[in-house]
Design a protein that fits this description.
Elements lengths: L2 H20 L6 H4 L7 H14 L3 H17 L5 H18 L2
Helix pairs in contact: 3-4, 4-5
Length: 98
């Protein structure tokens, strides 16, 4: 399955959920009532990139940022760990690169 087809299927599902919400068949607000749901727009693409391209500095940093923001939205303050985590990942990537 190509990326376009997979993305098309995802858009159809999301559109269908919004349509069902408008007809009061499905309550979409349940999905958006969880604090930090929007961070999945960072975490999911990072994980998909890791499975397709392998672990790179970019997708690892994106994953760390998404997880830190999710934890912050859930009431756990990890902002003080963001910069050190990014520096450590960048340092490790310098050793791992060919």
């Amino acid at each position: 399955m190509t990326n376009k087809k997979l993305f098309g299927i995802i858009l159809i599902i999301i559109g269908g959920l919004f349509l069902l919400d408008k007809f009061n068949v499905f309550n979409l607000s349940v999905l958006f009532s969880v604090d930090g749901w929007w961070t999945l727009f960072l975490i999911v693409p990072a994980l998909i990139s890791m499975t397709r391209q392998g672990v790179t500095t970019g997708n690892t940093v994106l994953l760390i940022i998404g997880v830190v923001l999710l934890l912050r939205e859930r009431g756990i303050d990890f902002e003080g760990f963001l910069v050190p985590a990014v520096l450590i990942v960048l340092g490790i990537s310098l050793f791992v690169r060919k």
